[in-house]
């Protein structure tokens, strides 16, 4: 297999996923090279890795022959400023996407890549105003497990042909193939921004929404009892709206967010959970005794759990409130005996999609919900 011989190197102690070591690591530099690599690796089990910021999310792979490292698949392919569109390679760190007076409104941990963000469907504080990954992604190029290249979507927002392929790969945890390029909808870069910070209960988020100040984000941290609101726009508009919010909440206007803003509340070796509930249930969840952090404007929050008992308690509370909870990451001794995903509607359909895209179950085997 000449392509494997040219691109692959032996795995090291640093090349492991969920404690499972990889035998080989390869870093293709283009979609074509990635397609040739995957076509030549038909007998190998594969896991995709970007910057590795979320490599331990999900379940460890059942087997791992080859890590495909995407960091050579980097850079902006095209920026159609007039159409508010950009095409970016999957290994590009979000922080390195410079588009002048336009912005790709995706938040992620330091170093997060485009492909990794799409693969695990992470959206930060600004999802309230700009939407999630699924909302911003309008086109995608992937390499299927059989080595064939597939594309869907287009370079203009109105072209939605094949958009379902992007939706399928968003949040698929690398189980359907390799993402190599993404086309995104852009937004004008705000000329000014401010953060309104206040010691206030989560109930106050409803007052922020009712105040018609068009917040870009409403975040809470129940451990500190703080609520913070991001306001963006023209300098004059930001001054007026942030002053109104500061008066409404009894808080202060700041140029910078609180230290906890957009930061996962669990340690690197801890149990991290994503909690999703209706907006009306956010105050009850925040007052439930388990510290939570995240978006009081969308009902997506995060929590650190100290063990299985707390995981089960938080999951039961979310279900009672009309939502759900998943465990994103956990140390090996806990992960091996924990139901990471909880009840998942549509699992049978998800299995059929996996079988169609990856009949050999070679890509991220067992990493996703239901052992997919």
Automatic annotation (TrEMBL):
Keywords: FAD, Flavoprotein. InterPro entries: FAD-bd_PCMH (IPR016166), FAD-bd_PCMH-like_sf (IPR036318), FAD-bd_PCMH_sub2 (IPR016169), FAD-linked_Oxase-like_C (IPR016164), Oxid_FAD_bind_N (IPR006094). PROSITE patterns: FAD_PCMH. Coiled coil: none annotated. It comes from the Bacteria. Transmembrane segments: none annotated. Pfam families: FAD_binding_4 (PF01565). Residues 17-189 form the FAD-binding PCMH-type domain. This is FAD-binding oxidoreductase. It comes from Paractinoplanes globisporus. The lineage of its organism: Bacteria, Bacillati, Actinomycetota, Actinomycetes, Micromonosporales.
